[in-house]
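Argininosuccinate synthase
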Amino acid sequence: MTDRIVLAYSGGLDTSVAIPYLAQKVGAEVVAVSLDLGQGGEDMESVRQRALDCGAVESIVIDAKDEFADDYCLPTIKANALYMKEYPLVSAISRPLIVKHLVEAAKAHGGTHVAHGCTGKGNDQVRFEVGFLNTHPDLEIVAPARDYAWTRDKAIAFAEEIDLPIEQTASSPFSIDQNVWGRAIETGYLEDLWNAPTKDIYAYTEEPDLGNAPDEITISFQGGAPVAIDGKPVTTLQAIQELNERAGAQGIGRLDMVEDRLVGIKSREIYEAPGAMTLIRAHEALEAVTVERELARYKRLVDARWSEEVYDGLWFGPLKRSLDAFIESTQEHVTGDIRMVLHAGKATVTGRRSDHSLYDFNLATYDSGDSFDQTLAKGFVKLHGLSSQIANKRDREA
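Tokens:
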């Protein structure tokens, strides 16, 4: 029986080249699996057909937009997840979902191997392969771009030589990954850290412009999940999509960062994630009102660790599962409304309200009606600083 390789197929350069290359190198049939994660742009039927045109024996397209939003983007919102305090895990959270569907496709279509188009320099090879090893360790893993030293220029030359239907060319060699949560752009002239990104690389966001009229928006949450925008009920997917449009029109969510990759190198990455960044900022603002101080302090540590686990490809690991349980337990009272003004590249919180608020006006006010007993503060300050006071006295005398 002929081996079958189930390939994570994006429709881009690396995975398009992988279909005929794997057929030649491994002598196996290739089943292409593509997920619609709300990336927009090219019609998914065109992507499916391209895989067949490149030589796949079967090409499968799965509509996973709502699953992605509910099971992967929503936990990212609840965790306020920003790797290195900036990156909202655009690609990282999509990989475990792709792994899930590739494993299911392998079971359904007699797959003996799974394959991806990642290089040996990136994080995605780890995310895919650790995911496969965690969920279906019997599958053989093939990574043509890595295992056969398949560089981007060689891939372009090979594709042109056999007339593969691809979008990337030698004159436009960007590597782009996108879904409804955001868009990631790398390689090409961006590899020189001194080169500024040009306007043409952006697709989800407009140029920030002070001349644009501000857009005021109210996002409602229930248990940490966005459930309405301006009073209109929305699903998580609809919330992300609407904010991609409205925040994107204001130039919100553009990131240009040098990232610490899991493999140990630093990499320059350009991201645009207008909906993701707006939702995370709104969720953080509501947590500030509804989550108790000590719990909030500890959750910030957990949020950072959750982001690192997901970035490092450990979505299916036991620590990530335990962190999920902790984060979910903190969301019980994260219900209420956040008003924001979207303008000129910034999402600014201007109002907060919640029936679960821990903010007490009578304790906070400096005007008449203040119920805070300031006479207690003097003794509190002395006791709070007592241990450091004693230590400093010792050090001065020494």
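The mean pLDDT is 93.
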